[in-house]
Design goal:
It contains four helices and seven strands.
């Protein structure tokens, strides 16, 4: 606690001139109280909850016999979106034989880009109720772009979409388009 020390100073003739008081405040209890308050507020506060995106996935079949047969998606009823490096987005509606670097189109991630492409492809689809968007992120894609594409699915009301790996024939065209084809390693 606080201590008060009184010092008397005498001058000539033994007169007391003034009393000076030196005060010393012990701050230890105040520091203890501060740490108690910090601890209290750390334990009683709620930490920020992680943001979670709802992704509707079909239920897994309990038995292999219940497993539905694989569905074949027509290219006229679908669009494939490739997420690349440096925020680049490519799309096509081609099969392995007709896809080349001229038919692999590039667009942007804004409303004038990929949103318009999805809406136009949906309007040209043979059966709009079965229109499917196939999202194929490359190894160079970033998570933000994937979330942006999922947001576009909600905005364009594309209820049928799937996420899958990029096919080897698509990867070859993609690497040719972006100019990022790695040179083969030299053998000794």
């Amino acid at each position: 606690m606080a201590e008060v020390q009184v010092q008397e100073k005498g001058g000539k003739g033994g007169k007391v001139r003034s009393k000076k008081q030196n005060t010393r405040v012990d701050m230890t209890p105040m520091v203890d109280l501060g740490f108690l308050l910090i601890t209290f507020f750390m334990f009683t506060t709620t930490f920020s909850k992680p943001n979670v995106m709802d992704l509707g996935l079909p239920a897994k079949p309990k038995d292999e016999k219940q497993k539905p047969p694989p569905t074949e998606i027509k290219f006229s009823n679908s669009i494939s979106i490739l997420l690349g490096k440096n925020n680049r987005v490519f799309w096509h509606q081609q099969d392995a034989t007709s896809l080349n670097d001229q038919t692999l189109m590039e667009t942007t991630l804004d409303r004038e880009g990929i949103r318009k492409v999805i809406q136009q492809a949906k309007s040209r689809a043979a059966d709009q109720t079965k229109f499917t968007v196939i999202i194929k992120p490359t190894d160079d894609a970033i998570y933000k772009n994937f979330v942006d594409i999922l947001d576009e699915m909600a905005i364009t009301k594309s209820e049928q979409y799937g996420v899958t790996d990029i096919k080897p024939w698509e990867k070859a065209i993609y690497e040719k388009k972006v100019g990022g084809a790695a040179a083969p390693a030299a053998t000794k």
